[in-house]
Amino acid sequence: xxxSVARMTSAAKLARRLLDCACHPSLVLPGKTTEDIxxxxxxxxxxxxxxPSPLNYMGFPKSICSSVNEVVCHGIPDGRELRxxxxxxxxxxxxxxxxxxxxxxxxxxxDYDERWLSEEEKSGSGSGILxxxxxxxxxxxxxxxxxxxxxxxxxxxxxxxxTEFSSEEERMRFVTARRLVQAALESRDEGVKACxxxxxxxxxxxxxxAVADAYGYDTVRHYRGHGIxxxxxxxxxxxxxxxxxxxxxxxxxxxxxxxMIVEGTAECIEWEDQWTVVTEDFGRAAQFEHTVLIxxxxxxxxxxx
Length: 305
Description:
Layout: H1 2-23, H2 34-47, E1 51-52, E2 65-68, E3 71-73, E4 87-96, E5 99-108, H3 114-122, H4 129-133, H5 168-193, H6 202-215, E6 218-219, E7 225-227, E8 234-238, E9 254-257, E10 260-262, E11 268-270, E12 277-279, E13 285-287, E14 290-294, E15 299-301
Antiparallel strand pairs: 1-4, 2-4, 3-12, 4-5, 6-10, 7-8, 9-14, 10-13, 11-12, 14-15
Helix pairs in contact: 1-2, 5-6
């Protein structure tokens, strides 16, 4: 019903704003810790009248999930310092208005043109202050003159890439990391494009798997997208690989699409902490997630700024 959709949209947009803070390159720097970023998101969520959905969920001890390199998902923020070239996924969720918002993105630590950060420092917005300010969003900033949504106009991925490296080994680490992150982003977006009223749930997995194949990567089978509303996780459960699930997509359905793309094998191992999931061969992983609504005419992404 419209009031429920409105609450979900509000929660999803707040989750996206919190994710933008977590992923901003003025914060995700070598020497920073995922615990630092967790604390920031925790405080920002509370200041916004929300509660971090992961905190104490089935015993999870932190407010976000932070998954570094070979960690596929459900990584627990800790005091390990991030290193240049690390691939880090932040899964950020919040509970507000009686419903949950959920999204995820992956960044490469230190992958910014240092001249860009220097300008931020000169303006007094460096050293993470830009993220800490948690600026108000102006919807007009996201649309071009034709009225079309322009994702790059205000997205943190629009920061200039790093162009200077200390060695060929470091350069290749960044190049391969960017390629993996791009594959995960494209796979999620193709999964979203496959959504339509009257379509089949399995169309999503097929679209995602095709992107993974094109890049020569694989897609994790064990962890899936999910329905979301007053419950954090509920049906329908969305497989991110080719499957034969027969479920018609009906207007009003709200669920997440969150493929985990890996460099090597899709087989995973869960650590003894009963949360952290890593690739069996220690290959790196990347993940992106949107919460989407099936509408009468197509699909609406709720986790846009």
